[in-house]
Amino acid sequence: MTSLDDILTPERREEIRSQVLTEVRADIAEQARPSRGRMMVGVLATAAALAVVAGIGVQVLSLLTPSSTDSSVSSLPAEPPGEAESAPGGEQEGDPQSLDQAERVVVTTGSARVEVDDVTSAVNAVVAFASDEDGRIDAQEQQSDGRAALTVRVPPDAVSRLTSRLEELGTVEDVSISRSDETATAVDLAARIRSLEVSTARLEAIMAEADSSQDLLATEKTLAERQGELESLQAQRAALEGRAELASIEITVSERPRRQAVDPGGFVGGLQGSWNALTRTAEAALTVAGALVPWSPFLLAAAGLWWWWRRSPA
Amino acid sequence: MTNESTDEALLRRACRDDERAFGALFDRHVDAVYWQAFGVLRHRDEAQDVAQETFVTAWRRRHDITIVDESVLPWLLVTARFTAQNVRRKIARVHPGELPEVADGARSADELVADADIRSAIAEAVGRLTPVDQRLFALCLEDDYSYADAAAELGVSRGVVRNRLSRLRSRLRVDLHSVREDS
């Protein structure tokens, strides 16, 4: 007869015991080692150090490069505009099918940032330039920190003269000009307008000869729709022509910052630059720490409660 | 309990990473746990694995174990049974026929006797528990309560009982004190 002691022998009991206690001891050893905590601290410290280095690096780079260029088609002031695109844009009246190769429809847009000593006089100069070139100012905005933003409209071939003028007024920080050939859109619009003109004329003729009031009403409805479409397309064409006729350049004028005591460049410059970055970072860190201080009693109390609750069996 | 420390005290020490305290808990309850697992699985090695796993789980979750009255045994037995049942289901699925069927009429007298022995071994261990812990065991293993639910239900009544006992004790002290003064 199998008794219980034959099944749960002392050897088996001992086996179970040693397996269980091995795990227990391994657990305790793992927790006794501050490795996890130390690892976390190490990781955090490294991350913090990397963040500081990255911040300093960015600061140094921005100080060392005098001007950055835009990612879009950028032009430095000395670049002349393409001669082929200097045509005043817009297509010939009434004959969309026979567009000349020279009659491309090109829309010019751009932006420029310039630093000057006196913002007001610079803005006036730009406004005067625009009117001299048969252009205009579409928008003008003065901001409280002394910056001014203008949207200048001038003929496309005046754009290079505009950038030259800006260089005379101050330091041009970055310039970006892009030209977009919208000839296909213009041709398409013209074609659709032409066909709509034809169909509305035909509908008007039908209405004039309509016999029954039923036919009249049906035709009138269609005619109204066609006329609506026609007007919309005509408006689009006018807008496109306007954009091609005058380039649209957004100019930001700001005041030159105070003379920096350090020349951005060279070893000393780099050193000073990163030192400034470091002190700024330290200031920020102190601000954060100061902000946390009033909260520390609550945080400590909460942490203490949690630790106490964890330590005693629930 | 005739031993020096209650389960509660041992568990508290185990929570502070006292390996010897946990070992004492192990020694106290390993038999009952093993029989609980064997009762479900009828397989010596599988029951051993389950017993090991039960205690390792108890260690890993030592901070979360709710002792309702005084003993960890109900928790251990519930966990052991649950684990054993899972193992049995898995084995039945993967290796049908490896475990002896529990309700098999062709079993030998040996095994039938062992059945009764196992039940009485567990019953003996449970019989040493306080009434509240015995009720906990019954709720979990017979009425199929989850441990948490049973503990919650009994926790309330245990609180009531404790209060009554402490009131009795303090009244007794007062009475004894007055008796001593009179004499």
Description of the structure:
- The complex is a heterodimer of chains A (314) and B (183).
- Chain A is α+β, with helices and mostly antiparallel strands.
- Chain A folds into 2 domains: 16-66 and 265-314, no CATH class; 83-255.
- Helices cover 59% and strands 14% of the residues of chain A.
- Chain A has helices at residues 4-7, 10-32, 35-64, 119-132, 159-169, 183-208, 213-245, 266-292, 296-311; strands spanning 106-116, 136-142, 148-154, 171-181, 247-255.
- A 5-stranded mixed β-sheet of chain A has the order 2-3-5-1-4.
- In chain A, β2 and β3 (148-154) form a beta hairpin.
- In chain A, α3 (35-64) packs across α8, α4 packs antiparallel against α5 (159-169) and α6 runs antiparallel to α7.
- The two termini of chain A are 44 Å apart.
- The model of chain A is unreliable at 68-94 (pLDDT under 50).
- With 183 residues, chain B is mostly helical.
- Chain B has a single domain (7-182), classed as RNA polymerase sigma factor, region 2, helix turn helix motif (Rna Polymerase Sigma Factor, Chain: A), CATH 1.10.1740.10.
- Chain B is built from 7 helices and no strands.
- Chain B has helices spanning 7-15, 19-41, 44-60, 73-94, 109-127, 131-142, 147-182.
- Chain B starts with 6 loop residues before the first helix and ends with a helix.
- In chain B, 33% of the residues are buried.
- Chain A binds chain B through residues 1-4, 7-8, 12-13, 15-17, 19-21, 23-25, 27-28, 31-32, 310-314, and chain B through 8, 11-12, 15-17, 19, 22-23, 26-27, 30-31, 34-35, 38, 44, 48, 51-52, 55-56, 59-60, 62-67, 109-111, 113-114, 117-118, 121.
